[in-house]
Amino acid sequence: MGIHEIYIRIWTVAFVGCMVLADAASAEESARDGVIRKSGNLRVPDHDAGDVAFLMRQPWNQKNNHRKSYYPAIFIFGDSLSDVGNNNNLITTAKATRLPYGRDFPGAKPTGRFSNGLIGPDFLAEYVGLPTPPPYLSAGNNILQGVCFASASSGILNSSGNVFGEHLPLAKQVTYFANVRQALQAMLGEKGTKNLLGKSLFYFNVGSNDYVTNYFLTNGQVPSLLQTQYTPSQFEDLLLSNLVLRIEELYAMGARKMAVVGLSVLGCLPAQRLIRKGSPTTCVESINEIVRSYNIALLNRIHSLQAAHPDAVFTYLDTYRFIDSVIRQPSAYGFENVLAGCCGSGRFHGLPTCSIPGLYKVCEDASKYLFWDFVHPTSKIDKLVIAKFWTGSYPDAIPYNLRELALVP
């Protein structure tokens, strides 16, 4: 058995074991952890931290949808950063259906969102003036104002996330969108469907799992299977070629306003820092270097898509620079801990044990944390990021922020 197979089996056993333990015990149990770690030895920020008050000013209120919406519908593609419940309907260990997930969500209940509360699509929908798009697997005919296809553990490649069980890779999400388009045609006719899709927002936040649960699956000392097959540059090209292919498929089905989110600081994730034995105050720079290269190449691909399709509008949304700024200057944004998860166990709370009774600790105030668990952000940082996407300017949004994109003819 190869070493990469051993690592895959270890991860599989760990996650399946967690699910068995979770099913055998109460999901209501919680604990508190007051451990706070300060960040240090990091670069001077690129962002002006003084805008945090403005970014937090907009409240989330799904009832405030009487105003005219900026887009008629929102279609979301991605992974657990955007999954609002699709994985609830799949056989997978990648589920967020037990407390403390959702403890700060309206009603204080888990919904399948990998967060303490609301996530990106919720905040985005509020800005747009629409309800949060329903998860495709339980949407039924509720599709006129958009659908969320995002699935936890999924990636651009079909193989990414297989260690967790069933998921909807990007290719499957696009296939499901074709089903939605067909249903829309039955409701609105071809002309009505074309008009709706041409004005709707197509939002992509995908690619993290292709690295975290695939390319960077091992501890860095032994290469993963994909690392033996592809150099970082070759793997980057593989991902982007597949991503562009899916975007082209959506364009052919009528998508005309598309926003693509770059990767965040994957080298700062508690799980990666635990696996690679990172220091208490710094991130794994070798991973972040690869992420920065990917983001630059992604922006170039978006420029190429725009040149190839002048009747559509594409924009790039940068999350890396803002999160990096928060990590380097946490107090300016109201954070106290930016390198460990609020919920979990192990060093940096980098183990995926949040919601497993008896195996996790959880902080008292998630708003002081950047990370909620081993890889996912807290609701607070999601709100800040979406505010940047909505009102930000270069280099947070290139060439348009999401509000400007809506107003482009």
Describe the structure.
There is one protein chain. The chain is an alpha/beta fold and 409 residues long. It has a single domain, classed as SGNH hydrolase (Rossmann fold). The protein has 12 helices and 10 strands. The strands form 3 sheets. The chain has a 6-stranded mixed beta sheet. Strands 6-9 form a two-stranded parallel sheet. Strand 1, helix 3 (120-128) and strand 2 (146-148) form a beta-alpha-beta unit. It is globular and about 55 Å long. The protein starts with a helix and ends with a helix. Belongs to the 'GDSL' lipolytic enzyme family.
Short description:
The chain has 409 residues and is α/β, with parallel strands linked by helices.
Throw out a few tags for this protein.
six-stranded mixed sheet; alpha/beta; signal; two-stranded parallel sheet; Rossmann fold; GDSL; 409 residues
What topology emerges from the helices and strands here?
Elements: H1 3-24, H2 52-55, E1 74-78, H3 120-128, E2 146-148, H4 170-199, E3 201-205, H5 208-215, H6 225-229, H7 232-252, E4 257-261, H8 270-275, H9 285-308, E5 313-317, H10 320-328, E6 337-341, E7 343-344, E8 361-362, E9 369-371, H11 379-391, E10 397-398, H12 402-407
Parallel strand pairs: 1-2, 1-3, 3-4, 4-5, 6-9
Antiparallel strand pairs: 5-10, 7-8
Helix pairs in contact: 3-11, 4-7, 7-9
The backbone outline, from C-alpha atoms, is globular
What is the averaged pLDDT score? 88
Number of helices: 12
Structural class: alpha/beta
- Poorly predicted regions are 3-46
**Biggest β-sheet strands, sense, barrel:** 6 strands, mixed
State the share of residues found in helices, binned by percent.
25-40%
Radius of gyration: 20 Å
E-strand count? 10
The CATH class name reads Alpha Beta
Relevant CATH superfamily: SGNH hydrolase
Q: What's the N-to-C terminus distance?
A: 57 Å
| CATH architecture name | 3-Layer(aba) Sandwich
Beta-strand percent range: 5-15%
One letter per element, helices H and strands E, the order comes to HHEHEHEHHHEHHEHEEEEHEH
- Strand line-up in the sheet with most strands: 2-1-3-4-5-10
The number of domains is 1
What would the CATH topology be? Rossmann fold
Keywords: Hydrolase, Signal
Pfam family, one: Lipase_GDSL
Family: Belongs to the 'GDSL' lipolytic enzyme family.
Protein name: GDSL esterase/lipase
